[in-house]
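Thread: quick sanity check before group meeting

JM: Hey all, I'm pulling together slides for Thursday and realized we never actually wrote out the predicted structure for the chain we discussed last week. Dropping the sequence here so it's in one place. If anyone has concerns about the input, flag it before I start.
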Amino acid sequence: MRTRGFKQENIIFRILSKSKVFTILGLILILLIVFPLIRKMNQKRILDREISELNQEIERIDKKNGDLKDMLDYLNSDGFIEKEGRLNLDLKKQGEKVVVVKDKNSQVEEETNTVFNIPGLDKNNEQIKTNPQKWQDYFFKLEL
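JM (edit): ok, ran it. Output follows.
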């Protein structure tokens, strides 16, 4: 019985010890290890790239958030409220005297006074001209 077990081990050892068979088995084993490893490395590289892009976006949003916070602090400040009250609401401090100086040569146009200067807010007051009308006014309108 011992001889049979010894012969079986001897046969397996002989097969594995032959250089061609052992080399082929080794290459197959290496390939089975390397391909999944390469796939995982590519996935890691893609995830690292996404993480760096997300970190850049976080930094950009944090900067924008800081800028908005600074703007909000300024808009809530007493200086801004006083300035807007003077400019847009014609308010004055107690004991102040207001002097208005008008120039005879300048034309006074009424504008909508708002807290914020929003472009396009006063579109109802202006006539929208087409491009040919603008060219016609440019070349043929006489200004005295």
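AS: nice. Confidence is low (pLDDT under 50) at residues 108-112. The two ends are 127 Å apart (CA to CA).
JM: adding both to the slides.
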